[in-house]
Amino acid sequence: MRRRTFLTTALAGSIARAARRDDLEAAAELVAAQVTGGAVAGAVLDIRRDGDVFQRHYGSASTADAIFLLASITKPMTAAGAMLLADRGELKLADPVRRFIPEFSAGARARVTVKHLLTHTSGLPDQLPENVELRKRNAPLSEFVERTIRTPLLFEPGTRYSYQSMGILLLAEICERITGTAFPEYLEQSLFRPLAMERTALGLGRIRLDQTQRSQVEQGPPHGGQGRPEASHWDWNSRYWRELASPWGGAHSSAADVSRFFLEFLAPERAQVLRPATAALMVRNHTSKLGRPRGLGFALGRGAGAGCSERTAWHGGATGTLAWADPQSGVRFVLLTTLPNTVANKLLIGPVSDLVSQASQA
To answer: Are the C-beta atoms of 323 and 104 separated by less than 8 Å?
Structure first.
């Protein structure tokens, strides 16, 4: 009787695995169809649970190790860099930003904290009003910092959620001032290298520009250049932008490396670089009263995919990227594409993520 029960259970498990595999293949076919049809130039799909890996590469991504411009998936990486300093006792979430950037102290700025920067509740804008003009003249990142320090706040800190890339920029500036090390090098030493993320850099680092996937900027937002010839010296594909190392969107990585990073937060008690309590804190909802679930650097919940649990930590990127880790199913999902999310989210990224996340809960 016990043997029959065991065999039945084992058979049910194998059938379930086969069914999930069929769903993953169906998700992979959704990507393949868009690449074959010419809508997407290149993509890598990477799905993992425990020791199982499902990986596919397409089009201009000639291997699964292809390197993409991540865009805003950079943000949780920057947040993790800041939280490593919290682990060392060099900053606290409640610290006012002016403790580290004294010139950020006029008016309501004096009340902006590190936590506000991490949760998009600082009142800073997403992009500066002069963002495109700065890019057009290839302004250094230091000028973005200087102007962000002076730019007006949109609301009283902590009273609203409003996505703010410039808050993440100031977070990186704090890290630089504390460590005395350029932020890309600090992330390389403290985060990427310890997590064996060998194909990842903020900016280009050791990566050559011709080793990266080109974004289909023609279908992107205005600040991506939209393929205009006069924008070629500052758009997402330009050497200027790829080397700028913007801490809100300038990281390059492979799908496998992104998955390694998200593993740090899938089961925080097994975190390798951050303290387990810190990793858990980063994927806890800190904005429950503001109508948008946010962790520290992460988006949270079902926005990642229709089948994702409320505990899912995720982030997408404007260049056509999405990554999530769902502790309920144990699944990590990464889809990197060359098609900007203004088109890719509806055409490809959303449907693929929905299918995988729903299959994962079966």
So the answer is: no
One-letter amino acid at 11 equals L
Indicate the average pLDDT of the chain: 94
* Residue 111: φ, ψ to 5°: -100, 0
Reduce the DSSP state of residue 44 to 3 states and report it.
strand
**Token pair of 201 as six digits:** 């850099």
Question: Is the per-residue pLDDT at 11 higher than 80?
Answer: no
pLDDT over 60 at 342, yes or no? yes
pTM over 0.90, yes/no:
yes
Name which of 344, 356, 297 is nearest 84 in CA terms: 297
Instruction: Round to whole Å and give the CA distance between 253 and 166.
Output: 22
Distance (Å, whole) CA 360 – CA 163? 29
Confidence of residue 21 (pLDDT cuts 50, 70, 90): confident
Structure-block tokens of residue 110: 């004096």
Whether the per-residue pLDDT at 344 is higher than 60: the answer is yes
Quickly state the pLDDT bin for 17 (edges 50, 70, 90): low
Higher pLDDT, 9 or 282: 282
Cα–Cα dist 306/99, whole Å: 41
Name the burial class of residue 68, with classes exposed (0-12), middle (13-18) and buried (19+) by CB atoms within 10 angstroms of its CB.
buried
DSSP string, 86-120: HHTTS--TTSBGGGT-TTS-SGGGGG-BHHHHHHT
- Separation of alpha carbons 60 and 39, rounded Å: 12
> Measured on CA atoms in the order 273, 54, 204, 32, is the torsion positive or negative?
negative
Closest CA to 120 of 148, 81, 87, 157: 157
pLDDT grade for 302, boundaries at 50, 70 and 90: confident
Joined tokens for residue 42: 């290149």
226: region left, alpha or beta (phi > 0 left; psi from -120 to 50 alpha): left
